[in-house]
């Protein structure tokens, strides 16, 4: 309140306890000694500050609004006294108290009895007695407490507010935990910091503690002469993050202590040095930058490794470098509205580095699981242009194999891979049309080099009849040209250049180490489906039969064409109706075929749902486009389908399967079940792959994985995870977990047994400890 502001009522207090008196600027002040009374209920209390309480603009004086049961003033120069349910509004600040005295001569407000002050950020301070300036900005509070952002709480014997941006407290306590039970009774918080002096600096967004004791459940466990934590209102602040403490047979005792550095509004970094007693210090960190033109993320690490020391199994590592490192990087930059350049880099020093130090892509670098790249890293740089319906993309790829058998000389690098596509913006013969051109160049330092160019035109049209029948027509004209060099350097080339060898192996040994081949591969097809739904008693039923007819010339996959980009194919119901199931351009699904299937579901009122699908492909002739292990290529494909069953949020079961069409044996199964019932939750997954394809890095695999957590109390839980290799009858990994979590802290201890073995990587038994204190350690 500025000096000179006064009341519309002076003199003796008003008599009715229910009266409310609005106090505004001084032009309305009555002469000293006069008295004015209001009838009960004449001015009702506002539920929120009225417009008169808000600050004026353009240099005008701010206005104040008082409300109270009784208000009095002896003279024009005497203090203003308000008693009984006092409320004062000044701009975006709001005060409540039992009694308030304002002296215009000193511009001091004294509030007493259950005082609370709320500011524009909705943080509220409480005290028994407050002496503050008239604008409710600075002052002194006794028996102070405050409810800050994100539920943080701060209490002290005395608090001094300075310049509206700094609060100094004596004998203070700070926590982000609940201090009251559900019934209103007090409780000891999970953690709190008691300090002789505390300074909350809202300009620098920090809270500083001096001579502080850190307590867990009321028990002091650590003394700190100085401690600084981010202010609860700040979104990000430089400081230490949650540490990870562990001990393992591979690394010995290890400690990872991340430090977060906020560099600016658009860039930051995290340094995460990891100390290990066996291997020394792993220096690692991550830098992030995001602005209007793009973003960049770089994660890297390096360690000086003693490769002459035996590993945990007593073996001397072979092929492990003295300096081990990794780098992951991803980002892009836009140049105007049409151009973009980007990259995605992942490289490591050796095959076992990532597994030994438990390094993975995090945050923005995290990727979806790609089953075709479990043992391979891929680096990529690209340039892209878009305009209207046109797109031009130029890529370059570099691969790194992580298996012992990988030969870097036979691992290709792609430079360049160019793809152009144009979608016509207007209908063509009543449908959508596009043209595409693709060029790929693969180089090897000691293997076959290949070049391929593909040009195609595609057209499709969809029609739905009044009866609900859906027809989808499509056609593609496509031509491919291939050129190969250094055919005599490929290690997988047939040693016998006969037609018999050519029929069995696509790598052909010729007198000439170069070869050129071309093919014309058009396709045309029609697809029909008829989705039906109806209500049947307590269930909603749905069924959709679907049939697709595709015609292409046969024998379009010559043995002279090397399959570089279509080796890994996962045949399931989701891909059954792809008219060309090859994942790249080198292979082409030729011949005449029919894809047929049906999908159905039932959703019941009680929360039970069942979804199922099943389908198969039928061909007039075999094709060499696919390896026999994929379940495709013969006149009848394997049978593919899915079955999903769920009951509310209690149980959910998802299944994907593929059965051999001849003997009905299970060739591929992917199942996962999730449950959450009472105090129990977890999941069970089963994977079975009978496919064996050396070119696609596929081997027979059967694994069972289970996870389970039991909530012992509202805060404590135990759990475990188990991964079993059923083919080798060997346990891969086991985890046992004890955890605690409440409103302000998490704590977890994990015991892990990892049976993975490799060169320089033995079995591992480890204990990991992780804890988080909200707002104090992030």
From TrEMBL:
Pfam families hit by this protein: LptD (PF04453), LptD_2 (PF19838)
Localization per record: Cell outer membrane
Stretches for region Disordered: 29-54
Primary site of residence: membrane
Gene Ontology CC: one annotated term: transporter complex
Keyword Signal: yes
Domain LPS-assembly protein LptD central: 210-281
Domain LptD C-terminal: 323-716
Cited InterPro entries: LipoPS_assembly_LptD, LptD, LptD_2, LptD_C
Keywords, sorted A to Z: Cell outer membrane, Membrane, Signal
GO BP, sorted A to Z: Gram-negative-bacterium-type cell outer membrane assembly; lipopolysaccharide transport
PANTHER family: LPS-ASSEMBLY PROTEIN (PTHR30189), LPS-ASSEMBLY PROTEIN LPTD (PTHR30189:SF1)
Protein family (similarity comment): Belongs to the LptD family.
Function: Involved in the assembly of lipopolysaccharide (LPS) at the surface of the outer membrane.
Subunit annotation: Component of the lipopolysaccharide transport and assembly complex.
UniProt protein name: LPS-assembly protein LptD
Gene from which this protein is expressed: lptD
């Amino acid at each position: 309140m500025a000096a000179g502001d006064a009341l519309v009522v002076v003199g003796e207090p008003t008599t009715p306890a229910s009266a409310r008196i609005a106090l505004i600027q001084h032009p309305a002040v009555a002469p000293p000694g006069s008295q004015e009374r209001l009838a009960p209920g004449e001015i009702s209390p506002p539920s929120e500050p009225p417009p008169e309480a808000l600050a004026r603009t353009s240099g005008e004086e701010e206005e104040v609004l008082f409300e109270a049961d009784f208000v009095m003033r002896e003279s024009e120069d005497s203090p203003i006294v308000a008693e009984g349910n006092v409320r004062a509004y000044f701009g975006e600040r709001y005060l409540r108290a039992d009694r308030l005295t304002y002296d215009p001569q000193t511009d001091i407000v004294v509030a007493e009895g259950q005082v609370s002050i709320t500011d524009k950020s909705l943080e509220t301070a409480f005290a028994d007695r407050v002496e503050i300036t008239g604008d409710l900005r600075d002052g002194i509070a006794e028996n102070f407490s405050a409810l800050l952002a994100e539920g943080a709480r701060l209490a002290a014997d005395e608090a001094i507010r300075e310049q509206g941006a700094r609060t100094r407290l004596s004998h203070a306590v700070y926590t982000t935990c609940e201090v009251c039970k559900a019934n209103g009774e007090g409780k000891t918080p999970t953690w709190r910091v008691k300090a002789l002096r505390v300074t909350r600096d809202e300009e620098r967004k920090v809270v500083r503690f001096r001579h502080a004791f850190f307590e867990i459940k009321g028990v002091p466990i650590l003394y700190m002469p100085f401690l600084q934590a981010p202010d609860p209102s700040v979104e990000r602040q430089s400081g230490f993050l949650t540490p990870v403490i562990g001990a393992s047979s591979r690394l010995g005792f290890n400690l990872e202590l991340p430090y977060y550095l906020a560099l600016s509004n658009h860039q930051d970094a995290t340094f995460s040095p990891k100390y290990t007693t066996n291997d020394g210090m792993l220096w690692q960190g991550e830098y992030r930058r995001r602005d209007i033109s793009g973003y960049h993320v770089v994660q890297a690490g390096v360690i000086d490794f003693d490769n002459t020391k035996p590993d945990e199994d007593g073996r001397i590592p072979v092929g492990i470098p003295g300096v081990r490192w990794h780098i992951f990087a991803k980002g892009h930059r836009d140049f105007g509205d049409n151009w973009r350049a980007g990259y995605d880099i992942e490289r490591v020093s050796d095959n076992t580095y990532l597994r030994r130090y438990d390094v993975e892509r995090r945050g923005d670098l995290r990727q979806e699981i790609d089953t075709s790249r479990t043992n391979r890293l891929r680096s990529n740089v690209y340039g892209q242009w878009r305009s209207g319906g046109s797109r031009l993309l130029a890529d370059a790829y570099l691969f790194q194999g992580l298996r012992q058998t990988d030969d870097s000389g036979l691992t290709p690098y792609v430079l360049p891979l160019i793809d152009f596509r144009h979608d016509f913006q207007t209908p063509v013969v009543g449908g959508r049309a596009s043209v595409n051109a693709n060029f790929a160049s693969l180089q090897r330092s000691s293997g076959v080099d290949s070049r391929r160019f593909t040009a195609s035109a595609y057209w499709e049209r969809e029609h739905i009849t009044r009866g609900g029948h859906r027809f989808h027509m499509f056609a593609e004209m496509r031509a491919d040209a291939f050129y190969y060099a250094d055919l005599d350097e490929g290690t997988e080339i047939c040693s016998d250049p006969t037609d018999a060898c050519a029929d069995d192996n696509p790598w052909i040994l010729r007198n000439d180490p170069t070869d050129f081949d071309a093919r014309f591969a058009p396709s045309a097809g029609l697809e029909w489906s008829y989705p039906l739904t109806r209500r049947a008693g307590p269930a909603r039923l749905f069924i959709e039969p679907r049939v697709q007819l595709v015609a292409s010339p046969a024998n379009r996959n010559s043995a002279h064409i090397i399959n570089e980009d279509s080796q890994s194919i996962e045949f399931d119901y989701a891909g059954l109706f792809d008219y060309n199931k090859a994942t790249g351009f080198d292979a082409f699904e030729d011949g005449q075929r029919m894809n047929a299937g049906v999908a159905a579901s039932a959703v019941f009122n009680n929360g039970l749902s069942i979804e199922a699908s099943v389908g198969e492909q039928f061909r007039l002739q075999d094709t060499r486009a696919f390896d026999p292990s994929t379940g495709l290529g013969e006149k009848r494909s394997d049978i593919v389908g899915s079955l999903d069953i769920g009951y509310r949020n209690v149980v959910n079961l998802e299944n994907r399967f593929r059965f051999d069409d001849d003997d009905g044996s299970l060739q591929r199964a992917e199942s996962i079940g999730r449950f959450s019932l009472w105090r129990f939750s977890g999941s069970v997954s089963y994977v079975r792959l009978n496919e064996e394809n050396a070119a696609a890095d596929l081997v027979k695999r059967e694994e069972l994985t289970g996870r389970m957590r039991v909530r012992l109390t509202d805060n404590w839980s135990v759990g475990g995870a188990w991964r079993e290799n059923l083919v080798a009858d060997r346990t891969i990994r086991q985890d046992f977990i004890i955890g605690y979590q409440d409103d302000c802290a998490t704590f977890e201890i994990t015991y892990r047994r990892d049976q993975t073995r490799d060169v320089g990587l033995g079995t591992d038994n480890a204990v990991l400890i992780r804890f988080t204190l909200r707002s104090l350690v992030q």
